[in-house]
Amino acid sequence: MSTGQSARPVALVTGVGRTVGIGAGIARRLAASGWDIGFTYWTAYDERMAWGAEEGAAEAIRKALTAEGAAVVAVEADLAGTDAPARVFDEVESRLANVTALVMCHCESVDSGLLDTTVASFDRHFAVNARASWLLIREFGRRFRGAPGSGRIVALTSDHVVGNLPYGASKGALDRITLAAARELAHLGVTANVINPGPVDTGWMSGELRDTVVGHTPLGRLGTPRDTADLVEFLCSPRGQWINGQLLKSDGGISA
After folding, report:
1. Which member of 13, 150, 192, 193 lies 3.0 to 4.6 Å from 103 by CB, making a disulfide possible if both were Cys?
2. Which tens digits make up the pLDDT trace of 178-201?
3. How far apart are CA 121 and CA 252, in angstroms?
């Protein structure tokens, strides 16, 4: 139920666990553009990754969003759980208002290939990247109360599969699920698009990898969270209303 305390629309952004991450960049850009923000994070995921958990990240992000004038709700949630998407929506909507934009930046991403991926890892990738995304979209569609033409779904994807099999394969499933929403939620006037941001260095790249990526990118630099955030903000604005059912590459031309 809406608190009725703010006239700003509400965006739910998933996967906002690090201040330098794409999710945090998107949340800040939307907050600056007049959105209230609900966001999710999962500390246990960052703890087992090479970069480690960033102490106090959720609070720092909350303060940054509040400084932009946004009302903010942060929810720690393991999206591998089938009950997590509904719980997240319940908490955000009870404290803010009905969600108008769903931006999915969450992921499970563990490097492994055809021969060394475990069944458990494969299943968790699909649970987080594909199944949770479907359940989040389903919750959004069931609960959407906005005016026709105002609703937005945006998902972040990747085409990196070689040596990254479960991540890339589950992101491919995410693409199809999200693009289906462009048709299946047409009666609500909701747009649904997917963005492939290409290689964005948020602290996970080695120096050698950075040099290789820059050398293969026509624009001669790495992607930044702001690059992706600018496109998401455009898609979520009235200016982006006519873009629907698309997989957009915003990668500096590296895929050309």
Report:
1. 13
2. 999 999 999 999 999 999 998 888
3. 31
Give tens-digit pLDDT for 209-248. Answer: 778 888 878 888 888 999 999 999 999 999 999 999 999 9
Rounded CA separation 214/77 (Å): 35
Pick the closest to residue 169 from 125, 132, 131 (CA basis): 125
What b-and-e string marks burial along 69-78, b requiring 16 or more CB atoms within 10 Å of the CB? ebbbbbbebe
Q: What angle do CA 3, 36, 104 make, to 5 degrees?
A: 115
Range 50-63 burial, b when 16+ CB lie within 10 A, else e: eeebbeebbeebbe
Helix (H) or strand (E) holding 230: helix 225-236
Query: CB neighbours (10 Å) of residue 137?
Result: 24
CA distance 193 to 182: 7
pLDDT at 4 over 70: no
Task: Tell me which of 5-14, 86-95, 190-199 is least confident.
Answer: 5-14
55's tokens: 């102490």
User: What is the rounded CA–CA span in Å between residue 160 and residue 200?
Assistant: 13
- Tell me the percentage of the chain whose pLDDT exceeds 90: 82
Please give the DSSP secondary-structure letter assigned to residue 147: P
Instruction: Name the percent of the chain in helix, strand, coil, to the closest 5.
Output: 45, 15, 40
Half-sphere exposure of 51 (CA within 13 A, CB side): 19
| CA–CA dist 191, 175 (Å, integer) | 14
The residues that are catalytic are: 167
CA angle 50, 24, 251 (to 5 degrees): 80
